[in-house]
Specification:
By secondary structure, the protein is of the alpha/beta class. Helix 5 (74-85) links the parallel strand 2 and strand 3 (94-98). Helix 8 runs antiparallel to helix 9 (189-209). It starts with 5 loop residues before the first helix and ends with a strand. The protein has helices at 6-9, 16-23, 27-37, 55-61, 74-85, 104-107, 127-140, 158-180, 189-209, 220-226, and strands spanning 45-49, 66-71, 94-98, 113-119, 141-152, 229-237, 242-249. It has 2 domains: 3-155 and 214-249, Rossmann fold; 162-209, no CATH class.
Length: 251
Amino acid sequence: MPYVLMKLFEEAPRRFDVWMQLLTFGRLQKIREEIAASAIDSGARVLEIGCGPGTLAGMLARQGVQVTGIDTSAEMLQAARESLDGNQGGGRQVEFKRLSALEIEDSFAKETFDRVIGILVFSELSDDEIDCVFQQCREVLKPGGRLIVVDEVEPRQAVRRWLFRFLRFPLRLVTFLVLQAKDLKTSNWFKKVLYYVIEFPLMLLTFLVVPPASHPLSDLEQRLRAAGLSTTGSKRFLAGTLELQQAERGL
């Protein structure tokens, strides 16, 4: 399942979960529930990277977990705060900050968190950035703490892998063009003509030349080990396109 459409859904933070539920056939929420139900003690400290509208943060907070959620989108964070304010007691357990994944090491002390969780966020980083963030996650985890990664991957089976690539390209193109033209609806007719005559062909060229903003993760287990973490288990969902990987910092 190509998750590039997620970039479109991020334009409407308050409807983000609804669209993601449809895109993942409800699987994403079940994964969140599985993470929330795992052995995270009340009072534990959790860092959620790319917290979005705060759904998982709220679930963890209701279990007594102290959550710090970070995201680069001010709109997402606002939606998350509004959502948590409406939950009884949940808001007191959660702190939201506008930070990128690359700022973790500079923003939090070493050995601060019992868990670090990133759902559909690492695939939006470059390979070098992913390796850097994995290392930063290790630094802020307590000894015995765990990193949980849920993200897009390519299926292992050859036929599914080629079908995945075949579907991903046109969806990525649609996402790119819609995002580029999102302000066009409020423009006058002259600007619209200029867009289709001049800007649209240039955007197509940019799409073909510039590397994609998101990409499926590869060699996930090896990269986690290279960051000094021990992988403890993984699961795949949705025809092998979504992987949940857990890794632990040694004592």
